[in-house]
Write a structure and sequence with these properties.
12 strands; single chain; three-stranded antiparallel β-sheet
């Protein structure tokens, strides 16, 4: 066993001490030079620490073999990584308060960079569709999608990444021996095929609301930017955005309806200066280091537009309409007898994709009076070609 592997074992052993978290472990390493040195230090060396963990540690080191801790974790499929290793999340390692030890399952590769996509556990259909769409498009450009495996927006972000055969990381607010929420167990297994589950919490640590702010700090720290899809006025996703600002990360937000409780947090972020995101290139515009690797092609927009962008949409020259039209034309084939389709409905389909579009924006694009549009939309729904989402949003049916 080399010195680094030995050091990882001692760090894992110290983390087993009740009350000795990542911050305290970082302090011990700074004072003694290594976790191994701290483990073997004589009792008087801890005289300045009055915390209960000191006596617990002094007692535990008589019975615990640090190498055995690492071996036991390995048998459970849990590996250890420290900031000195190349496969430790690159951007997280650059932070002064990076966890001195992470537990992980799955695959971590050197130099990977992430974009966090987070939001409400009670995300709307529109928010979930937007998260999945955005994750799919960003992952296709080789960026790791990072989230927290929570219900709602997090789940959609992970699923969108997997749909693009991309890599996604899930940071957990509990030990890696527990999947929370339990209904995401299969999703977690799918993530492990190419990505990773990570945690700074010792295996055996149960899910707890008090753990999630620490988890959110890691999500933002591992990324160049954080995209908040939907968030209520008091939401954990806003905590992630706050950490991102402290860490010098870009913060993006998806604008939402003013009447939606799930838009209050994101709209607040926009008022505070967060970058608006309604297409993938909005992200690349704010992260120059990515532009040399993956860049700019027009992407369909994420939602209703405003100002000059709305004018471009109504003028038929909005970026991304070629992508939308090509997909819609494929959907229109075979919609009617003999493969024919009503010309007005064909025009509607040419403006649609798997991205939600608002009925007003759709009417603008097809140059059709708003009062005539609902009948055509209803017929297309009955034919199973399109689906309606809350908020007068429509998408092409996924079963096609």
């Amino acid at each position: 066993m080399d010195n680094l592997e030995r050091e990882k074992g001692f760090r894992a052993a110290l983390r087993e001490v009740p009350g000795l978290g990542s911050r305290r472990l970082r302090q011990l390493i700074a004072v003694f030079g290594s976790a191994e040195a701290a483990w073997h230090a004589p009792a008087p060396a801890f005289a300045n620490w009055k915390d209960a963990w000191v006596s617990a540690m002094l007692g535990m080191r008589k019975t615990i073999r640090p190498e055995g801790v690492a071996e036991e974790l390995e048998r459970a499929g849990i590996r250890l990584v420290v900031p000195a290793e190349g496969h430790y999340p690159k951007l997280l390692a650059e932070l002064a308060d990076a966890p001195p030890l992470l537990y992980f399952k799955g695959h971590l590769s050197e130099g990977q960079e992430g974009l966090a996509i987070v939001g409400s556990r009670r995300g709307t259909a529109y928010g979930k569709a937007a998260a999945e769409f955005l994750a799919r498009k960003v992952a296709a450009r080789g960026i790791v999608i990072v989230s927290g495996l929570a219900r709602g927006i997090d789940t959609s972000a992970h699923k969108g990444t997997l749909a693009a055969d991309g890599v996604t990381w899930a940071f957990l607010g509990n030990g890696l021996d527990t999947i929370y929420p339990p209904e995401n167990r299969k999703l977690a297994e799918a993530i492990l095929e190419r990505g990773a589950l990570l945690s700074e919490f010792v295996p055996g640590t149960p899910p707890d609301g008090g753990h999630f702010p620490a988890r959110n700090r890691l999500i933002s720290g591992a990324c160049r930017g954080v995209v908040v899809i939907e968030a209520a006025a008091k939401s954990g996703a806003l905590i992630t955005a706050d950490f991102a600002l402290e860490q010098g990360r870009e913060v993006f937000a998806l604008p939402g309806p003013i009447f939606s409780e799930m838009s209050k947090g994101t709209n607040h972020l926009l008022r505070q200066g967060a970058r608006i995101v309604d297409e993938v290139d909005d992200i690349w515009a704010e992260i120059p280091v990515w532009r040399k690797d993956g860049g700019a092609g027009g992407e369909p927009r994420l939602g209703p537009q405003s100002g000059a962008r709305r004018e471009a949409a109504c003028g038929g020259a909005a970026k991304g309409t070629e992508d939308r039209g090509a997909l819609g034309r494929r959907y229109s084939k075979g919609c009617g007898p003999g493969g024919n389709v009503d010309p007005a409905q064909a025009e509607i389909l040419e403006q649609m994709s798997d991205l939600p579009i608002h009925v007003d924006q759709l009417a603008c694009k097809v140059k059709m009076p708003v009062q005539e549009l609902p009948l055509h939309l209803l017929e297309l729904q009955l034919a199973g070609v399109i689906e309606q989402l809350p908020g007068q949003l429509y998408v092409l049916a996924r079963k096609i």
